Amino acid sequence: EKEDDGAKLLEGKKVIVTSGGTIERIDPVRYITNDSSGKMGFALAKAAQQMGATVHLIHGHTDSPPPAGIDAEAVQSAEDMYEAVLRHWKDSDLVIKAAAVADYRPAETASSKIKKKGDTMTLELVKTVDILEQLGKSKTNQFLIGFAAETHEVEAFAKDKLVRKNCDLIVANDVTAEGAGFRSDTNIVQVYDAGGIVEQMPVMSKDEVARRLLTIAARRMNGEA
Ligand code: CTP
Ligand code: CA
User: Fold this and answer.
1) Which residue, among 113, 121, 122, has the nearest Cα to 29 in the 3D structure?
2) How many other CB atoms sit within 10 Å of the CB of residue 15?
3) Is 169 in the pocket of ligand 1 (CB under 6 A)?
4) Residue 5 clears pLDDT 70, i.e. is over it
5) 103 is in an annotated binding site
6) Is the pLDDT of residue 132 over 90?
7) Which ligand is nearest to the CA of 149?
8) Where is this region: Phosphopantothenate--cysteine ligase (predicted)?
9) In this structure, what DSSP letter does residue 103 have?
10) What is the pTM of this model?
């Protein structure tokens, strides 16, 4: 019988966590990024390691450095993050995509500083690679968890992403809710699988969200639920 506290539920598992926001370069002094703090991914990396996993954290721009004692790799763009994930993907058991990946990047990155010219300027953007969608397509026996940060129609959008990206679980959060989302130390999340709601968590610390989410994932990976 497994202990109920979930202490070592991920013993022997290889886990990839992505966190933070990607940086998409415009020129040597400017870039596009987003409000991700990296906190949720950091909490997941710590919790997975505490639960016995071997963790590799791949992070973009974050508010603070990654937690001490975690094997962490810093990347910039969505493309860089994709390449880093792919290097560990085949060998992994669980992948959690908590990163806020830019959806678009500048069509071209200027090699020198863009000079001010007319009264308006247009930046052409092109879509980035959807890392999670690519992983979903090439999944063998990895357990895949996506995130869905939404401001409206949270459940419908989250379920759509779960199916479209072939995730095993998706963690939805309404980033407009008090006590949730970017920069906050707490979060309010709903976990869905293809069958519907798995768990609606009340407001709690990101550390606690991480432990509960990983416990759900570990039980499923171990064929217990
Ligand atoms: N994601 C990704 N690569 C991208 C965009 C998103 O891997 N280029 C991942 C995120 O890490 C997250 C999930 O996909 O786990 C959902 O991200 P989200 O931004 O909520 O969804 P999108 O599919 O980008 O849709 P939209 O931004 O329009 O809501
Ligand atoms: Ca997006």
Assistant:
1) 113
2) 27
3) no
4) no
5) yes
6) yes
7) 1
8) 15-225
9) S
10) 0.95
Spell out which residues have Cβ within 5 A of ligand 2, the ion.
Answer: 103
Contact (CB, 8 A) for 13 and 221: yes
Average pLDDT over residues 186-200: 95
What pLDDT band is residue 184 in, cutting at 50, 70 and 90? confident
CATH code for the domain defined by 14-102+125-221: 3.40.50.10300
To the question of whether residue 63 is assigned a binding role by annotation, the answer is: no
Name the average pLDDT for the chain.
94
For the annotated catalytic residues, the residue numbers are: 34
Q: 4 is written with which tokens?
A: 């109920």
Place 91 in a pLDDT band, splitting at 50, 70 and 90.
Answer: very high
| Both tokens assigned to 68 | 């001490």
Q: Is the CB of 105 under 6 A from ligand 1?
A: no
Question: 3 forms bridges with which residues in the sheet?
Answer: none
The rounded distance, in Å, linking the Cα atoms of 26 and 110 is 6
**In this structure, are residues 41 and 56 in contact, taking their beta carbons and an 8 Å threshold?**
no
- Protein residue whose Cα sits closest to atom 28 of ligand 1: 103
* pLDDT interval class at 206 (50, 70, 90): very high
CA distances from 13 to 29, 53, 73, 78 (A): 40, 5, 19, 25
The residue behind tokens 């202490």 is 7
Please state, in angstroms and rounded to a whole number, the distance separating the CA atoms of residues 165 and 146.
Answer: 8
Taking phi first (over 0 means left), then psi (-120 to 50 degrees means alpha), and beta for anything else, what does residue 20 get? Answer: left
